[in-house]
């Protein structure tokens, strides 16, 4: 009885909802750091871990463009609209969308499963025969995870609308626990494939924990399938622009990974772990507030309550800034200590730690922008506008790709630019130095995206 009450508890305020999600993201991020420490300690900055991080990008690409970036963003505002009009039809609509999307994601995953050997050679030109031998079966294994995530994220949309944030907040924790289980107990038997099995297991847990609460909210699964159902047409219409935007972001990450693969062994690992750590405040603060307020903003728009929409948006915007600015400063000042304590272990040496510290220091300059981008984009999505943030994302991705190539090229030889960066971060010039160009390009692009989103959301809200 008590357990049932916990599983179905409803969060009454936005701040409490954000706090629950934020605490969850924090613990998930801590588990993520433990996960990364176990990975670098066991495998080091070498071939196997380079393959794992690169292989992870492909299924992650499918997950982000079709599920995280597309489905939940389009589904939740539509769910809010249906629920405000007809509380019975909303569950019928949910089943139609769930079944149609599940068939779609199965088809996409199967096609990419077959094409894996071809696109690895195209996407990661720095990989040799040993890399390919590991990467092909590992990527194919990881294609199971988007299937579980597809179901899970639709359930997440339901839980978010009914403000059942506690169970939703457990999903990233269980996901990381699944991966850690793979590292500790499966890796000794299966090598790097044990980590892949852990990823799939974590994705299954991500889905399974939400099923009882979704049923309590009113969901009763039925195999209803009609691709001409009006809501399916609408949700795909809302998804298409967003899919292009998230696809561009994921292509951007893949291109960054491809560039890193040409620098030196271990470059992908160093960039990935510094990027993972700087994502901690973005997830704990920026994403948690954005997720908590998204159902409320969607509800206000569906009910034509513009004043409440603006008040809630402005309040959350200010709260995020109050938290992230001090964290950004502390991350920059304590970057050496952070990397040393967390990552300096096993086969991950002092030179690797120094470079990761410099990358983290560069990332710190854009944490404020990255933390506000989720709120700004969800403000657009709640207005059922997926086109504007997508066009902004496409422009910013282009800027990032150009800057990444340019900075890496400039850092390959001694010049004013490269000398400034190496001296600023007290680094010795070596074959890894060009890697600094990637977080620098990423940070500048994030700030550009933030500025553009602010400009256009202000313009849209004034017009609405």
From the spread of the alpha carbons, the general shape counts as: globular
Tell me the helix content: over 70%
- End-to-end distance, in Å? 46 Å
Please state the structural category. Answer: mainly alpha
Give the total of beta strands: 0
What is this structure's SSE topology?
Layout: H1 2-7, H2 14-43, H3 47-85, H4 89-123, H5 129-142, H6 145-161, H7 165-190, H8 192-208, H9 211-217, H10 230-261, H11 267-302, H12 306-333, H13 335-343, H14 350-364, H15 367-382, H16 387-410, H17 416-424, H18 437-463
Concise structural overview:
The chain has 18 helices and no strands. The chain has 464 residues and is mostly helical. The longest helix is centred in the first third of the chain and has 39 residues, at 47-85.
Walk me through the structure.
- The chain is an all-alpha fold.
- The chain has one domain.
- It has 18 helices and no strands.
- Helix 3 runs antiparallel to helix 4 and helix 14 runs parallel beside helix 18.
Provide the descriptors you would attach to this structure in a database record.
464 residues; 18 helices; mainly alpha
């Amino acid at each position: 009885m008590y357990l049932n009450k916990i599983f179905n508890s409803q969060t009454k305020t936005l701040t409490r909802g954000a706090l629950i999600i934020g605490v969850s993201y924090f613990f998930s991020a801590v588990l993520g750091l433990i996960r990364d420490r176990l990975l670098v300690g066991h495998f080091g900055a070498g071939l196997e871990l380079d393959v794992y991080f690169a292989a992870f990008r492909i299924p992650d690409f499918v997950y982000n463009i079709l599920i995280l970036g597309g489905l939940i963003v389009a589904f939740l505002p539509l769910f809010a609209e249906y629920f405000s009009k007809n509380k019975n039809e909303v569950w019928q609509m949910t089943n139609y969308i769930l079944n149609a999307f599940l068939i779609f994601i199965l088809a996409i995953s199967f096609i990419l499963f077959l094409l894996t050997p071809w696109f690895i050679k195209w996407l990661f030109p720095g990989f040799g025969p040993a890399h390919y031998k590991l990467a092909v079966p590992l990527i194919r294994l990881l294609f199971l995870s988007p299937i579980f995530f597809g179901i899970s994220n639709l359930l997440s949309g339901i839980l978010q609308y009914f403000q059942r944030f506690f169970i939703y907040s457990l999903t990233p924790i269980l996901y990381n626990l699944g991966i850690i289980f793979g590292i500790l107990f499966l890796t000794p038997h299966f090598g790097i494939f044990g980590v892949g099995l852990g990823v799939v297991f974590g994705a299954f847990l991500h889905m399974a924990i939400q099923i009882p609460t979704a049923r309590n909210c009113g969901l009763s699964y039925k195999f209803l399938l009609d691709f001409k159902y009006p809501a399916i047409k609408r949700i795909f219409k809302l998804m298409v622009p967003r899919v292009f935007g998230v696809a561009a972001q994921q292509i951007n990450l893949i291109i960054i990974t491809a560039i890193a693969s040409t620098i030196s062994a271990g470059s992908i690992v160093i960039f990935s772990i510094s990027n993972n750590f700087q994502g901690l405040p973005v997830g704990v603060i920026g994403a948690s507030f954005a997720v908590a307020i998204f159902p409320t903003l969607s509800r206000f728009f569906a009910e034509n309550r513009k004043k409440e929409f603006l008040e809630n948006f402005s309040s959350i915007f200010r709260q995020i800034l109050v938290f992230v600015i001090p964290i950004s400063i502390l991350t920059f000042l304590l970057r050496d200590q952070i990397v040393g304590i967390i990552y300096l272990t096993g086969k991950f040496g002092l030179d690797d730690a120094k470079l990761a510290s410099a990358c983290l220091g560069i990332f710190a300059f854009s944490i404020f922008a990255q933390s506000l981008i989720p709120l700004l984009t969800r403000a657009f999505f709640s207005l059922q506008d997926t086109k504007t943030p997508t066009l902004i994302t496409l422009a910013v991705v282009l800027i990032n790709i150009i800057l990444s190539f340019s900075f890496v090229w400039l850092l390959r030889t001694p010049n004013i630019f490269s000398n400034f960066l190496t001296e600023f971060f007290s680094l010795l010039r070596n074959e890894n130095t060009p890697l600094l160009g990637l977080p620098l390009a990423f940070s500048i692009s994030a700030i550009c995206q933030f500025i553009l989103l602010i400009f256009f959301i202000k313009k849209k809200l004034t017009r609405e």
